[in-house]
Each structure stands twice: as structure tokens, then as C-alpha cells.
């Protein structure tokens, strides 16, 4: 047998070579190898091309002709397994002349591979030929051809042609791989170039923003100017929240719906609880700007707040990088504002301490005038105290907010004053810039207190607030008396277990006796005045004491009192006579009536002590 190709085979080989060289796409080349090989070898009705996967150590089908591609692609042949595996291991073209040789060669197929092969080729071929594909001395795959017609058999000449085609296939695959690698290298370079360009753009943008923000800070523009600049630069809604989730600055082109604002505030509070130190992106149920980018201000364990960008879509990385730089500037500005606040608090605190000490001199009076305090004006004091707090680490922040809220609500065109924050309370010293009656001035302050309570109620700070109000006193020297009275009001609320209430020294009335007498003396007085009545009610239905309360509350009007407790007037009259008998008094006696009235007024506060 000559190992040279016939003229016809040479023409076929040239045709195959031309087809293989017409493309550089590796998948196209592999498919063309199979199609052209089947077309130029007469006995071939179908076949498969397998490439060796070094990681798996298996020959894997890459393309096929006239077989079930979905099934054959599942086959994984070990070297030496079946016809293709044997050709791979032998490193030479093998011919299986008849079905008996085919059956013998495929007898070692694994159960799984046999299943897939039978699904792909229901009937075994009558003959087969398998040629290895060599590249640089290494076998990289196998071309296997099958004949499904008994009259067509593969010949030795077919071995020569298939071997030549396999060589051409190796060259074409190598060329395609090199081209693919070059393409990938070019793509990688383009990607790296794009990344460098983006990073340079991000760096340039960040530096530009950082410089502009630094200039704003150096010129004392403050947080509002910083937030407005970020809005201008990004084109998105920008909101700044503090560590309590309170919005302290914002900038946006379109009005934000109240419900949307509440939802954004909730997200700000949640982000503070999570204590994340990197930016996060969430999609919220908002009408216009559902994408929220949340950036922390500060670092663990001290977070000053959060910066939130609301946009109609996810903001670009370049903007995120710039905003992260901005957060550093914002945190420094917030630290500066906190330092200014602390310094002002210290000055105000020293002034209040001097007032309480009573050591007034020309220097203090001069300082008072600088603070717009007229030494001869009228003065009134409020003390606002936190009763309880869910999150104690938020105490300083809440105190700061209470001071700021007090300054905003109380220190206005009609009132002047200073606010001093302490451990769990603030002292607010107010003076009236225009001379008004005490009645009007006190009414005005109580209205402002009501507004203050309403705003506190809307907050979610986990605390309740009690407020004590002193009386109005003339001259700055006597302002200390108003401070003491406001303090006594809070002491009164604390002593009798009351929280979240407002009480003024002026409205205390007879309850002031609680401050001026010992608890033991007051209990003795209560026992002498209405002790027998208390004891009587405790052993019976308990109707006399409430009847007495109603009678006194309605200014001794028996008809109104009876209606209030839903009894007949005659019933109330009988009960009042029974009270006189038990206490051995007469309610018509002014002195005895005064004692009973005082005792009834004090009883609600002392009954828990009794």
C-alpha cells in the first residue's frame, strides 16, 4: 500500500484546507472540520470530533454530523475508552472494518457513556475510523467517522486522507486559538484602558469636588451650601440626616411628598442602627426617585449621620466616589458645628451658674448686656427634663436637639433667651423684649410650650419629656428664683411618679405646701383632717370620699356635684351629712371647711405614701 494520496484525495484535501482557512472562529472551524471530512470520505455517513480536556482528563465531543448532538455532547471518554479513546491513546489512526470490531472496541464504554451513545446512535455503525489530532507533538483530540451502510467500508486510503485532514485540522485549530487569544488580549487591554480612563475621570471629578467643598468649608458656608453643591453636581435629590435620623439639610429640584420623606427618614434611621461603614443601594417604594444611595457620615463607633441620594436610577460609580469624598468633608463640618455648639453651651452654662450663685458684678452685668439681657427686665425659666430614654448612647444627641428646638421655638422676635443643656435636662432662661402684662406673657409661654410638646410627640427618640415652669420675676438678679421654682416643679413631678407632663409653679397652688413641709407633717395633717373618712371608705363601698371630692370640685354646688357622680341630689346631701358625722365637723364652718379642702387637695399626691 502506498502512503501517498491519490489525485482525487489531494483535491479533497485542498478543498478541506481552503474551507478551514476561510475562518478564524474556533467554533466555526471545528464544525467545518466535521462537515468537510464527512463530505470527502465516501464511506462516512456521520461522525464526531472530540477534544481532550486536561482538567477533566476526558475526551469531550465538540461537534457532530448525522447523530443526536444533544445526547452525544454528554459523553465523556477516558483515554483508551471506546474507538475514539483507543485512537487517542495509540496516537495513530485506527480502522474498525466491521460491526464485530466496532462492538469489541465499544465494549468497554462506561454505563453512562453507553447510555448517551445509544441515545445518539440507536444502531452501531458497520465500520468506523478514528484519527488522532496532533499539535506540537501532543494529541489534542480525535476525529471519528462512522459508516451506517453495510456496503460501504473504510479503506486504508481513507486512513491516509483522514490523517492528512487531522493534520490540517490541528493547524487550523492552532491558528484559531492564537487568534482567539489575541482577541482576548486586545479585549483585556481595551477593558483595562477603559477602567483606567474611568478611574482617572473619577479621580479628577473627586479632586474637583473635594477642592470645591474645601473652599466652601474654608469660607464658612456651612452644611446647607455643601448639600446644595452636591445637588447641583449630581443633579439628584440630596438629604443629610443626623444620628437620630433627623433631617438637618436638603437640596432637591422638585418637592418631596410627605410620605416619601417619612420613608426616607425611616431608611436613614435603619442605616444608623446597622452601623454600616460602606455605601449601600436600596430600591424603595417611592414615587419619583426609588433608588436610594445611603452613605455613612463618620466611622465606627462614632457615626454622625447619613447622606442619602434619591435618584430615578442607580447613580454612577464616579458620583459615588465623589460623594464618599464629600462625606469626609461633611463629617468635619459636623464636628466643627458640634464644637461651636459645645463652646456656646459652656458660655451659657457659666452665665447660669453665676446667676444661681448670686454673685452679680459689673463684669457679669456687662456680659448680660452683650447677650441682649436687660438687667431690669422680666425673666422666666423653663426646665425641660428627659424622664426616660430607650437608647442611652443617644442622650447627648437628644439633648442637643432639645436645645436647638428650644432656641427655634422660644427665642424669637418676642422673646430673648439662652439655653443650657445638662446631663438629662436643659435650662431655658427667657426674657421679654417688650413690656407686657405677666398674664399675657405667661399665656404666650404656655402656648409655645404646647407647640414644643407637639413637635416632640412627632419625634421617634424613645424618650418622654417633663417641663417645669417658674414664675415671672423682675430684674436679672431675681431670675434665679424662677430657676429654683422650675426645678421644684420637676421635683414635684418626680416625687409623685408623674412623667411626660407640664407643670408651672404658678398653677401649683396649695401643692406648694408639699415643698415647704416634711412628708411626715403632711401625712399627720391628712390623718387628722380626713383620716377617719379614708378608713371608713376602705371598710365599705368607698362612696363618701369621691362624693366629697365632687362637692368641692363643683364649688359646693350640690346639684352639679350629684350630676357629676350620677346620684340624686338628696343622696349627695345625705352623704355630706354622713361625712360631717364621721369627721365630727361642720362643712359650714369656714375654718373646718378650709382644713378639709386643703386635705382633699393634698390627698391625690400623698395617698401612695399613706
Automatic annotation (TrEMBL):
SMART domains linked to this entry: GAF
Pfam families assigned: GAF_2, GGDEF_2, HTH_30
Matching SUPFAM superfamilies: GAF domain-like (SSF55781)
Alphabetized InterPro entries for the sequence: CdaR-like_regulators, CdaR_GGDEF, GAF, GAF-like_dom_sf, PucR_C-HTH_dom, PucR_C-HTH_sf
Segments forming domain GAF: 25-183
Family statement drawn from the similarity comment of this UniProt entry: Belongs to the CdaR family.
Protein name as annotated: GAF domain-containing protein
Amino acid at each position: 500500500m502506498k502512503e501517498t494520496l491519490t489525485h482525487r484525495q489531494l483535491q479533497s484535501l485542498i478543498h478541506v484546507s481552503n474551507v478551514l482557512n476561510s475562518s478564524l472562529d474556533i467554533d466555526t472551524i471545528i464544525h467545518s472540520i466535521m462537515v468537510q471530512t464527512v463530505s470527502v470520505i465516501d464511506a462516512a455517513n456521520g461522525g464526531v470530533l472530540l477534544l481532550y480536556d486536561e482538567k477533566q482528563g476526558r475526551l469531550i465531543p465538540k461537534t457532530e454530523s448525522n447523530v443526536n448532538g444533544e445526547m452525544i455532547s454528554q459523553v465523556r471518554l477516558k483515554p483508551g475508552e471506546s474507538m475514539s479513546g483507543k485512537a487517542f491513546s495509540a496516537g495513530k489512526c485506527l480502522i474498525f472494518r466491521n460491526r464485530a470490531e466496532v462492538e469489541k472496541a465499544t465494549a468497554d464504554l462506561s454505563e453512562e457513556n453507553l447510555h448517551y451513545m445509544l441515545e445518539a446512535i440507536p444502531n452501531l455503525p458497520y465500520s468506523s475510523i478514528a484519527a488522532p489530532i496532533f499539535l506540537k507533538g501532543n494529541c489534542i483530540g480525535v476525529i471519528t467517522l462512522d459508516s451506517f451502510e453495510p456496503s460501504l467500508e473504510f479503506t486504508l486510503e481513507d486512513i491516509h486522507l483522514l490523517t492528512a485532514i487531522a493534520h490540517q485540522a490541528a493547524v487550523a485549530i492552532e491558528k484559531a486559538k492564537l487568534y482567539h487569544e489575541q482577541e482576548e488580549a486586545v479585549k483585556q487591554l481595551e477593558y483595562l484602558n477603559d477602567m483606567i480612563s474611568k478611574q482617572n475621570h473619577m479621580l479628577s471629578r473627586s479632586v474637583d469636588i473635594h477642592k470645591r467643598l474645601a473652599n466652601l468649608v474654608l469660607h464658612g458656608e456651612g452644611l446647607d451650601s455643601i448639600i446644595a453643591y452636591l445637588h447641583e453636581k449630581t443633579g439628584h435629590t440630596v438629604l443629610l440626616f443626623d444620628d437620630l435620623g433627623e433631617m438637618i439639610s436638603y437640596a432637591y429640584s422638585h418637592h418631596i411628598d410627605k410620605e416619601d420623606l417619612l420613608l426616607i427618614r425611616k431608611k436613614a434611621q435603619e442605616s444608623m442602627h446597622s452601623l454600616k461603614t460602606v455605601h449601600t443601594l436600596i430600591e424603595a417604594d417611592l414615587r419619583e426617585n426609588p433608588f436610594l444611595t445611603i452613605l455613612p457620615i463618620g466611622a465606627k463607633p462614632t457615626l454622625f449621620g447619613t447622606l442619602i441620594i434619591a435618584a430615578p436610577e442607580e447613580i454612577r460609580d464616579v458620583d459615588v466616589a465623589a460623594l464618599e469624598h464629600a462625606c469626609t468633608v461633611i463629617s468635619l463640618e459636623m464636628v466643627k458645628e458640634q464644637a461651636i455648639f459645645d463652646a456656646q453651651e459652656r458660655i451659657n452654662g457659666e452665665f447660669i451658674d453665676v446667676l444661681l450663685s448670686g454673685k452679680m458684678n459689673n463684669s457679669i452685668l456687662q456680659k448680660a448686656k452683650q447677650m441682649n439681657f436687660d438687667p431690669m427686665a422680666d425673666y422666666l425659666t423653663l426646665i425641660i427634663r428627659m424622664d426616660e430614654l430607650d437608647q442611652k448612647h443617644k442622650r447627648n444627641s437628644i439633648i442637643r436637639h432639645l436645645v436647638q428646638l428650644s432656641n427655634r421655638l422660644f427665642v424669637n422676635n418676642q422673646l430673648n433667651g439662652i439655653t443650657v443643656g445638662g446631663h438629662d435636662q436643659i435650662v431655658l432662661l427667657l426674657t421679654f423684649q417688650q413690656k407686657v402684662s405677666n398674664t399675657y406673657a405667661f399665656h404666650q409661654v404656655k402656648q409655645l410650650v404646647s407647640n414644643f410638646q407637639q413637635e416632640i410627640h412627632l419625634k421617634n427618640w424613645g424618650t418622654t419629656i417633663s417641663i417645669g415652669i417658674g414664675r415671672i420675676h423682675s430684674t436679672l438678679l431675681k431670675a434665679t428664683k424662677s430657676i429654683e421654682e422650675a426645678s421644684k416643679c420637676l421635683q414635684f413631678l418626680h416625687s409623685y411618679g408623674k412623667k411626660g407632663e407640664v407643670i408651672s409653679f404658678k398653677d401649683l397652688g396649695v401643692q406648694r405646701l408639699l415643698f415647704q413641709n416634711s412628708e411626715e407633717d403632711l401625712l399627720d395633717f391628712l390623718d387628722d383632717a380626713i383620716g377617719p373618712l379614708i378608713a371608713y371608705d376602705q371598710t365599705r363601698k368607698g362612696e363618701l370620699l369621691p362624693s366629697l371630692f365632687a362637692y368641692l370640685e363643683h364649688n359646693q354646688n350640690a346639684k352639679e356635684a350629684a350630676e357629676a357622680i350620677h346620684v340624686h341630689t338628696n343622696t349627695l346631701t345625705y352623704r355630706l351629712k354622713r361625712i360631717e358625722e364621721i369627721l365630727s365637723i361642720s362643712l359650714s364652718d369656714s375654718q373646718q371647711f378650709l382644713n378639709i379642702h386643703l386635705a382633699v387637695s393634698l390627698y391625690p399626691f400623698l395617698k401612695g405614701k399613706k
